[in-house]
Write a structure and sequence with these properties.
about 210 residues; mainly beta; 10-stranded antiparallel β-sheet; two-stranded antiparallel sheet; 1 helix; 12 strands
Length: about 210
């Protein structure tokens, strides 16, 4: 079975979409595309505090709301553009997918980012309900698919070697992480637009 692999560096949002077969995949396989951009993450911080789950508490009690108690928990992409594409033979300089826009959840509610474990937040946040959409420069659909929920921080590393993390009150602000997941329910636009990569992605995905 072939699937579309989605690799996301959750901080810089450098993202790779590629095809893999079987149960294990690599974002180094061909064909694939790379896009880069930004994400808006409006976390709600009320559920960061264990005591806020105490059912005996009144809403009027002195509840610790943390820094963003009215957050919507929405996770959304913006200013995301495909910067490179690779067909089965490797990198190519010209392809209609290069310059394509990557968005999420057109005419749908925004995806949500949720801390699965309040005591293990950094490594256990997950995105739910995301439809990843790739649009050609003319606005036509290239393809879209549902991102399978998975924890964001499957690997965590520091973004800078010049920071003394022992002196920071919240060192997580200076960390980077990644998520590896798959796209399901993939829908394709017109794959005859001259994009070798798009045609190969559809062919090799078997969808």
């Amino acid at each position: 079975m072939r699937r579309i692999l989605c690799f996301i560096n959750a901080v810089s949002l450098l993202t790779l979409l590629s095809i893999y077969q079987g149960t294990q995949g690599s974002y180094l396989e061909f064909p694939r595309l790379t896009f880069i951009g930004k994400a808006r993450i409006d976390v709600n911080t009320r559920n960061n505090i264990n005591c806020n789950f105490d059912q005996q508490q009144n809403i009027s009690d002195n509840i610790d709301l943390d820094f963003n108690s009215n957050g919507t928990s929405e996770f959304s992409l913006f200013n995301c553009t495909v910067t490179s594409a690779f067909d089965i033979g490797g990198g190519i300089e010209k392809d209609p997918l290069i310059g394509a826009k990557v968005v999420n959840n057109i005419n749908q509610a925004s995806p949500k980012i949720v801390d699965i474990d309040v005591d293990f937040q950094l490594q256990k946040a997950a995105i739910y309900g995301m439809t990843l959409v790739v649009l050609l420069e003319n606005g036509e659909l290239a393809f879209q698919g549902t991102l399978q929920s998975n924890v964001l921080a499957q690997d965590v590393w520091s973004k800078s070697i010049c920071i003394d993390y022992t002196k920071l009150t919240n060192s997580s602000h200076y960390l980077s992480s990644k998520i590896v997941s798959v796209l399901s329910n993939v829908q394709w636009g017109d794959t005859t637009v001259g994009s070798t990569v798009l045609a190969e992605l559809k062919e090799y995905s078997g969808s």
